[in-house]
Each structure stands twice: as C-alpha cells, then as structure tokens.
Amino acid sequence: MNDMQTIQNKMEQAIRLLESRFLEREELIRLLLLGLMSNENVLLIGPPGTAKSQLARAISQLFGTSEWFDYLLTRFTTPDEMFGPVSLQQLKQDLYVRQTAGYLPSSSFAFLDEIFKANSAILNALLSILNERIFFNGREKENVPLVFLMAASNELPEENDQLTALYDRFLIRYEVGFLKHMSSYEQMFQLPVEPLPALLSLKDVHTVRQAVEQVKIPESMIYLLYRLKTEMEAHEFTISDRRWRKIGQVWKTSAALNGRSEVNVWDTVYTPHMLWDVPEDLAVLQELFQKEFQEALKQESERELPLRTYDQTAKHWLGMEDELHAFQFKKEVGGGMSKEAQEQMRDKLESCRIELEETARTLRGKLVQWQQREKDLPGYIRNQNYLLTQTDRFAVKYTHLRIQGERILQTVQGLYRTLFDREIPGVQYDYTL
Known about the structure:
Strand order of the largest sheet: 2-3-6-1-7
Structural class: alpha/beta
Number of helices: 18
Shape: elongated
Distance between the termini: 39 Å
Number of strands: 7
Order of helices and strands: HHEHEHHEHEEEHEHHHHHHHHHHH
Radius of gyration: 29 Å
Strand content: 5-15%
Mean pLDDT: 91
C-alpha cells in the first residue's frame, strides 16, 4: 500500500470519527481537512453554540499535538496574550524580543474566536502569520510552524482596510448554523466524549504537500476556472488573482489526496465556499458554479460518451435530409440530374447510411455501458473523490448526460427510418430505463 492510500484510509477514519461527534457537519468536516492539507486558513461564520471551537480542538487531537493555541479575542486583547510576553532579559540588552513558546507563533494548530475583534496592535502580526507563516519578533523573522489555523466570528468585519486584508487571508469560508433535523437532536445527548485518537501526523501533511507539487491542472480545468471568473464578473462578483491561484492549489491538493497526478472536475466541487464575501451570495455563486461544473463534466465525459461527436454527425445528415429523401424516393428528381450528379448523390446516400449505422451502434453500446455504471453511480463518483458528500445528488448529472445521448440516438434512428424506410439493424435500445 502506497503512502497516499495509507493517508486516505486514515483520513476516511478521521472523517467517520468527526461525523460521530459533530452532527450535520459532513461537508464542513471535509472542507476543514482539505483546507488543512492545502495550507489554507478556514473561517467559520455563525452564532455561538455551534461547536466551532470544539471542532477545531477535535482536528488538533487527530494529530496528537500539544502545540495547540486557542484564544478568544476582544478589543482589549494585548499582543502579549497572543504572541508571548517581552523577554525582560533581552530588554536589558535593548532588544525587544518576545518569548513565544506556548503562544501562537510556536503553535502547529490554532483556533482564534471572534478574530475580527483584533485591534491594530495585533492585526499586522496576524497578517504575516496567516499569509507567509512568518512572525516578526523584534529584528528577527521567525518561521511559524503553523499547519492549520481556523478562526470564527459571529459576524463579518465592518468596512476597515486592515480587517478587509485579514478577511482576505481566509480562502475557505463557511457559514455554520444550528442543527436542523430531529434525528440530530435524538443523537445529541449520546455523543462520544472520549478524546480522539491520533490518527494523522505532521509527516502525513508533509507527504500530501509534496505530492501536490507534482499535480498538474489540465487546460480543461483552467478553462473552467476562467469561464467561472468571467461569469462571476458578469454578475458583478470579483475576486483577486491570488485567490484564484489558491483555489487552483486546493484543487491540486484534492487530486493528490485521491492519488491522482492531474486535477479533474470532481476536485472542484467545494469551490463555491472559496468565492463568497457575504454568506447571502453563496446561493447565487453555487448556481453559477453548477452551470460551469455541468459543462466541464460533460466535456470530461466526452472521453467515454462523446456526445458532441455523435450530435455533430446527426446534425450533419439532418441538414441534408430533404435533399437525400427527395433523391431516394422521388424518381423525377433523379431523372432531371446528370449521370455524374446521380452518382454523387448515390455516394452521398451510401456514406449517410454507413455513418448513421456506425454512429447508432457505437452510441447504443456506450449508452448500455453508461446504464451499467448508473447502477452504482454514487460508488463511481466516490472513487473519483472520497471527500465528496451526498454523491447521489451528483449522480443526477450523469443521468442527464445519458438522456442527452438517448435523444441523439432517437434522432439518428428516426433519420435512418425516414431515408431508408427500415430500422437500423442491431440497434434495439430500451428507452424506458
């Protein structure tokens, strides 16, 4: 078993453990782990009492680390509380150096609650930690061992340049609400309370991030990204090139986690949570993304079900239907033509017959294979990306592609019947499925 397969097994086990403790958080749990492996910060927006800090602690427990920093910020929080006290010994030597051990600059995992309450004395240091993983300690630049930082806020920042810069450091944003389902309330009083086992390690994170460096984004996925950007701008949504680049890195991380060296359409599913500035925009952005996702899925599926090619063939001969039909069944049309022209029409009719028969047989075979896949589409999709939830909702997209293929097959069969007054041999297909 290779390293990535081992990490996948541990990730899946970690997901199951987290889901048993945090109800109705399936998508969020996967996003947090994806953000962690991508070296991206995650911001949760939601009211108190939605288990945001507990979830952050649980993820750190999965790594068995004691290098954990957790703090609730207020307007009165001082830099000493976040970054450590100033060393009196160093101060005697006219050096302003903080003792960072046990504070944010020495932590591997961190959770900052009410992060937008941070004052200006804290903000600048936070910006470099979040973006470059660097802490300016006196005259020295210290590398911060931060693997993952998760922050939370009950509300979004007000119009303030410094807070806007801080907000932009969080690529992944997620709105967390209270539990909605009766079944969750039934389980809520029987949740496991024992500490989580240390399933994952910092070495696993390093292995994944190394693998990401070898992953490529194919032109088709870059085109998806560009189409999405263009569509967003048409609806007056704009994000920076830096964020687009980071989104691409998250896609690459998803591909690496699934043992692939190239990004595919299934690595893009969580993209809407990296696009919005206010939660109210998520629904619109989801709709814009789904439109581009469906088109990209269609293009990727062309390898196995080349609908575009079949459709072009059908349309090509449909455009000549009247001419061919007239020649085939109306003798006076052929009678008024030269022998050379008649021969050309016969050749064209024969080419039409051969192409329609070949297209119909090939397409029928592809559709039958597609039907077999549909018997376990959720399993097939999960094999593409094990971090996906509710795979059955994506299965509908594959069914939509099959229906498009069936329409093309019906068109080809109908045209053949019109031109040759018979059915295409060996192309029986059950349209009732």
